[in-house]
Amino acid sequence: MICCAVGLKAQTAVNDNNTPLHLMKPSYRVGYGIPTKDEVKQVMDRVLRYFDAETPAELVDSRTGQRVTDLKKIDEKTQLKQGGFRLTSYEWGVTYSAVLAAYEATGDQAYVDYAVRRHQLLANIAPAFRRLHEQGKKIDGNIRRVIDPHALDDAGAVCCSMIKSVLSEKGKVKNEKSLIDNYIDYIMNREYRLADGTFARLRPQKNTVWLDDMFMGIPAVAYMGRLTGDAKYYDEAARQVVQFAQRMWVPERKLFRHGWVEAMEPHPAFFWGRANGWAILTLCEVLDVLPADHPQRPEIMQLLRSHAQGLAALQHHDGFWHQLLDRPDTYLETSATAIYTACLAHAVSQGWLDAKVYGPVALLGWHAVASAVNDRGQVEGVCVGTGMGFDPAFYAYRPVHVMAAHGYGPAIWAGAEIIRLLARQHPKMNDSAVQFYDEEVPTSQPIFNYDGKIRF
What we know:
The protein is mainly alpha-helical. It contains 15 helices and 13 strands. It has a 3-stranded antiparallel beta sheet with strand order 2-1-3, with no helix packed on it. Strand 1 and strand 2 form a beta hairpin. The longest helix is centred in the N-terminal third of the chain and has 26 residues. The chain is globular and about 85 Å long. The C terminus is likely disordered.
């Protein structure tokens, strides 16, 4: 009789009376909840180890492959040793800024050392290669863009990272200021502009404004204001932001169009994910250094808040954002997701955005980013380099690749800002949902790890 009773009890169906159904484990595909700082850093460290190995900081002879250590022996056949990524590209300028942010958030010397080794190498070799270039000799293109930049892509992102390095106690590099001055001279005096001074390009159409160029030019100018104390740099950075927004901002969508061509009427609006990432990252970078009493600061702050609202409304339930933000039939893209995660977390930490509203968005974004980092530390799901198009197919079918450099700096930066967020804010699980509070409150609700296991 007892056995029968036990058997019947074992077969009792789960119902609302005998089971707290609201505590059942959801089937999250990318994880959910509040990660620990150690969990976030483990992902970041994996990414750092991978790209550290893929970006050797040394010179070689292109004829023999032998390492060149004597700067007096540099000639036109000397080049940066090639790895998976380029040390002087704008994507790697993002990465240098990201590792400096990671050092500030974690205190781990490995991050700042990564930037210092490569910044110092470029500062050391620039004089010799500049002499060769002035003599009319063909030099390594990856070094040419440092000493003779031809576009904002060559200059702005790396320059900004170098200014941050100079401003950092741990990141200082000898003779770096001459490189910064050269970059800034290009941005301020030689970059092509529209009649009103807005940064522009002659491709794919004459007088095209690229949303990407907000980031490729403006943060370096703003940070030059911090470095020198000269108000002209703050004024120029703020002016560029406002003039970009006049052409690129679509207020009814709370998003930026990717491209604006002077001769087009009407102006098509394609809301490419990564370009909107460059825009919101620019707003954060400028607000970080723009003086509190600068007349354009309130306008730029409001633009950031509106953009954050537009982006948050379009986040996929797995934490990612789409390649074309307003077209959910396009793929989920990692680099844009990482940039938004970093920026929203940063803006919350700075007090610019409401933690209760945007903290959960940032944490969900981090889970998405972490899910895209494979065991080797490669960042998957990243759109390759992309020009400008005026039809949806162009964006929707852009390839993705683990060697697309655009995902690595943003992944590190996102992790750094999430760690900073966790240190400054008070997220807790309440009834299985992520909530942010004004102060530390107790909770007994479960928190789900990346592997889906519950810890209390």
